[in-house]
Design a protein that fits this description.
Layout (H helix, E strand, L loop, with lengths): L1 E6 L2 E6 L5 E2 L10 H13 L7 H6 L4 E5 L8 H14 L7 E5 L9 H8 L1 H6 L1 E4 L8 E6 L5 E5 H4 L3 E7 L2 E2 L3 E2 L13 H7 L2 H4 L13 H11 L4 E9 L5 E7 L3 H14 E4 L3 E7 L9 H12 L2 E10 L9 H7 L5 H11 L5 H11 L3 E5 L5 H6 L3 E3 L2 H11 L5 E4 L6 E4 L1
Parallel strand pairs: 3-19, 4-5, 4-9, 5-6, 9-12, 14-20, 15-16, 15-19, 16-17, 17-18
Antiparallel strand pairs: 1-2, 7-8, 10-11, 12-13
Length: 422
């Protein structure tokens, strides 16, 4: 049977054995743009556990809007158009509005990338910039969390009367789900703060995984940090279908609305797998999440959940930006023995990108991973303990030499679903 897998902005069609079990989310079909605009307006006027946005705006002089970066499929422009319109209607001057790309430790965005995210008009009319986690002079100290994390957050966010978080809710491989508190930590926090929250012990916890909030130390620490930012009073987040079209909008209190959004999303994306697979074929959800190999670890972690120990994963990821993070590449390449890399992280933290390598190594200690991409050289993939392949067909041949390929699972949506073995 033929199965289509998102790959960059296109799809790859692969002929798979009929016995393959294909796992799909059950998300409703997304809305058209005009319908999305109406839903956004309705949610902003009738939010979860919060006054309407226009009421909050009427009490505010300085406003900051946080948006997700280029690796996320958030319709930033659609949301910003309506939010900035309401801010203007309530008398907030444009010069008093900052729009910050909540990049966390990701690379600052170029002018062209910002225009791609939010459109030329908004980029020209408002003060828009990328958060820089290494700029210590731009950070304000807000104390320590119950986990001991030192909370340092972007000064413009802290000093605002109102901070609004724009994003999407999707599964996250160690915070449980994206959105909400993540716009603050790691979004606009200092490098030191992110290092502590993403530490070895935190990520080694069994509930630092997809689908867990309660008892997840990474999530609980993020919530503690975000609640210290008193201006953070409102979020507007989307839920996306298989084609990355909006099927619902969640707005309101950053914590209560986020929890509500997670409950809604869970109805559609937790999928039962009938067995542990010999071979799992997965993507990173296509563009923009499959822009680089760093992000592709998320899809590998998704696949490993339903792949037996000793089984094989095929990851289809375009990686137009290559590896993405040089520190990630260097750390993942330091030894041919994944266990030694894990031990090195534990002994020598904090290390830049150690969390991504830690999650990758956890997969490699259980499964072999074949990566299908033309944008990362075979030699680099091999250095990182991954098996390179130029085509899906070649990857299938390699995989079926390693394992019997009797039980095969395909997960076209990659990390946008949470598969669970029955």
């Amino acid at each position: 049977m033929k199965v289509s897998f998102p790959y960059g902005k296109k799809y790859i069609e692969i002929e798979l054995p009929h016995k393959t079990r294909v796992l799909y989310s059950k998300t409703p079909r997304g809305l058209n743009e005009e319908e999305v605009r109406r839903v956004i307006r309705s949610r902003l006027e009738n939010p979860v556990d919060s006054p309407p946005l226009r009421v909050l705006a009427s009490r505010s002089r300085l406003v900051t809007v946080l948006i997700t970066d280029k690796t996320r499929a958030t319709p930033n422009k659609l949301l910003l158009e309506q939010i900035t319109e309401i801010l203007g209607e309530m008398g907030v001057k444009r010069d008093n509005i900052n729009i910050i790309v909540a990049t966390g430790l990701h690379k600052p965005h170029t002018r062209e990338e910002i225009v791609e995210l939010i459109g030329e008009v908004i980029a020209k009319e408002f003060n828009v910039y990328s958060h820089d986690s290494d700029d210590e002079e731009q950070m304000v100290y807000l104390g320590k969390t119950a986990y001991g994390t030192e909370v340092l957050v972007n000064k413009d966010v802290v000093e605002s009367d109102l901070t609004i978080g724009i994003g999407l809710i999707e599964p996250h491989f160690f915070a449980g789900y994206s959105g909400g508190r993540k716009l603050i930590l790691p979004g606009v926090s200092a490098t030191k703060t992110v290092y502590q929250n993403h530490g070895y012990k935190m990520l080694n916890h069994p509930r630092a995984d997809y689908g867990y909030l309660d008892g997840n130390p990474v999530h609980e620490d993020m919530v503690d940090a975000a609640k210290r930012v008193k201006s953070y009073k409102f979020i507007a987040h989307v839920l996306l279908d298989k084609e990355k079209r909006v099927f619902d909008v969640i707005a309101g209190d950053p914590f209560k609305a986020h929890e509500h959004g997670v409950r809604e999303l869970d109805k559609y994306i937790k999928i039962r797998a009938p067995f542990e697979a010999d071979l799992t074929i997965v993507t990173n959800g296509g563009y923009p999440l499959d822009r680089d190999l760093y992000q592709a670890v998320k899809g590998m972690v998704t696949a490993s959940r339903v792949t037996r120990r000793g089984g094989v994963i095929i990851m289809l990821s375009e990686c137009i930006d290559g590896v993405g993070h040089e520190h990630f590449r260097d750390l993942a390449s330091m030894s041919r023995d994944p266990q030694k890399i894990l031990e090195h992280i534990e002994k020598n933290e904090p290390l830049r990108d150690q969390w991504q390598v830690q999650k990758l190594v956890q997969v490699l200690l259980k499964n072999k991973v074949i990566v299908v991409t033309r944008n990362v050289s075979h030699s680099v993939l091999e250095e990182m303990n991954l098996i390179p392949s130029s085509t899906p067909e070649e990857a299938m041949e390699i995989a079926c030499r390693e394992v019997p390929c009797e039980r095969i699972i395909a997960i076209p949506e990659g990390p946008y679903v949470i598969p669970v073995v029955e």
